[in-house]
Amino acid sequence: MPEQADTDPTHVSPELAQRLRDIFEARDRANMGPTIEAFLRVLAEHPDNAAVLYDVGGSYDTAGDEETALGYYERAMELGLTGDTLRRCLLQYGSTLRNLGRHDDSLAALDRALQLYPRSESVRMWHALSLHAAGRSDAAVAALMELTVDEVRTEDLLRYEAAIRGNAAYLRDRDAARPR
């Protein structure tokens, strides 16, 4: 069994998971160099581990080196990243593509994330942001209205839930009717 763990690109032992968490928690967003170096040392030990590749990508992304981050995210997903780490990777990948002006690619990544994780508030938020960046403000506002009414369950909003959903549907339909 230990051999399989060493060759399974999605396997993360408890020790490796803790090591990755420790590096992440010690990061200084204003100075990502030490974090990148620490993750690269782990990557040298686990060169084909999807979770490690994802964390390396995230550190480059936080440092503002989005082009480098993309390659790590893509490799992590190719190796079969799963679960919550895949959700976070798709979100960050989509956000990075948006930052690089690749709006269609960003929406494709976030559409995939929405299909896999339809209740993820963060995926829904970043999807709306990418819709807006792509010039699809009606769809972005509709998505944010639906996210709000789904997740902010106050008496005040619940009173207007049907109207909020109706207006969101109207905006989504208006967006869908626009030529692309």
Shape: elongated
- CA radius of gyration: 19 Å
The separation of the N and C termini measures 52 Å
Describe the biggest sheet?
Answer: none
Q: Mean pLDDT, nearest integer?
A: 95
* Classification by helices and strands: mainly alpha
Q: Enumerate the spans where pLDDT stays under 50 for 5 or more consecutive residues.
A: none
Helical residue percent band: over 70%
Order of helices and strands: HHHHHHHHHHH
> How many strand elements?
0
Percentage of residues in DSSP E strands: under 5%
Question: What are the salient characteristics of this protein?
Answer:
11 helices; 180 residues; single chain; mainly alpha; elongated
Structure overview:
By secondary structure, the protein is mainly alpha-helical. 77% of the residues lie in helices and 0% in strands. It has eleven helices and no strands. The chain has helices at residues 2-7, 14-25, 33-45, 50-62, 66-78, 83-99, 103-116, 121-133, 137-151, 155-159, 161-177. The longest helix is centred in the middle third of the chain and has 17 residues, at 83-99. 32% of the residues are buried. The mean pLDDT is 95.
